[in-house]
Each structure stands twice: as C-alpha cells, then as structure tokens.
Amino acid sequence: MRSFLFCFVPLFVSVDAIGLLPLFFGLTQGIPPERFRRIIRQSVVTAALVALIFASAGASLLKVLGVTIADFMIAGGALLFAICLADLLSADKAALHIDTESLGAVPLGVPLITGPAVMTTSIVLVNEYGMLPASVAIVANILIAGVVFWFAARLHRFLGRAGASIISKIASLLLAAIAIMMIRKGVLSFLG
Predict the structure, then answer these.
(1) Are 159 and 148 contacting, i.e. CB atoms less than 8 angstroms apart?
(2) For the segment 113-162, what is each residue's pLDDT rounded down to a tens digit?
(3) Distance CA 161, CA 148 (A)
(4) pTM tops 0.85, yes or no
(5) How many domains does the chain have?
(6) Could you write out the DSSP letters of every residue in 60-83?
C-alpha cells in the first residue's frame, strides 16, 4: 500500500487532469454526447496502453541505448522541470487544432494525459517501487483523468477559468519539486 501511494502521488501530479480540464473543455465543446463519451473512452484506453507499455519496456530501451536509470532520472527531472517552468510562466495552455475522429487518442491520450511527465515518472517509479504498484498507480490516475473529463462541464462551471488555472499552476509547482527530487536522486545514484 505504501509503495502504491509513493507511486500514486507523483503520477497524480504528472497527469494533472484538473490542469487539462480547460483544454479538454475547449477541444470537446459542442461535440454530441455519444461522441463525447467515445472520446473519453478512447483517451483513457490510449493513455493507459502507452503508459503501461512505456513503463514495462522503458528500462529495456534505456539499457539498449546505454543509458542508466541515474542518467534518465537526471535528464527526465531536467525535462520535467523545464516543462513545469514553461507552464508556470505561461498564461494559458496552447490551443490545438485537431481532428475530432482522433481527438481521444491524439492529443488527449498522448501527449496530454500520457506525456513526457508521465513517461519519465513511470520509468523511475517502476525502477524504484516495482512494476505492480507503478502499474496500478498509472491505471488509477488515468481513470481519475477519465472521470474528471466525464464531468468536465460541471467542474469547469464550479472551478471557473481562474480556479482551473490556479490548480494547474499548483500542480506544476509540485511537479517541479518532484523533478528536482528526481535530479537529486539521480546525481546521488550516479556519485554513489
């Protein structure tokens, strides 16, 4: 249970479902209810499959490339920090023009739900806590994102644009702290 919680929290911050809410709402506005539900299912399935495949094969890929976990932690932490810094300093998430037939898979499933933050965090968590707790945490967080998307209109009305933006910035700040922790652990692992 403890390993699951240690995996769940960084992934919860990495997925940032509430932070994605304004973008999701904008992308799906005016879509008929049946299509809306299909987009949510498509995004959850795509995100979960990509995240689980990357979590299970990521370490092998790194090994083939000659990259150590410490290297990946430092690089992944630096990348996460850069992403968080860009999000913290930007006024709004970028608007996207996409095809509604593939909206659930791209960009919602990948790279918005399962993007660099989730991939980097997943591989580090699998290495540190094992595949089972990391996989359960990945699936749980992606399902939470699906639930948030399901109730997008209600949540957006409740939080408002400013509330969703504030929550997104807080999540980015927490993710930046996790990125620094990953860099610190990678450096200590490299030196040790």
Answers:
(1) no
(2) 998 789 889 998 998 999 999 999 999 999 999 999 999 878 777 878 78
(3) 15
(4) no
(5) 1
(6) HHHHHHT--HHHHHHHHHHHHHHH
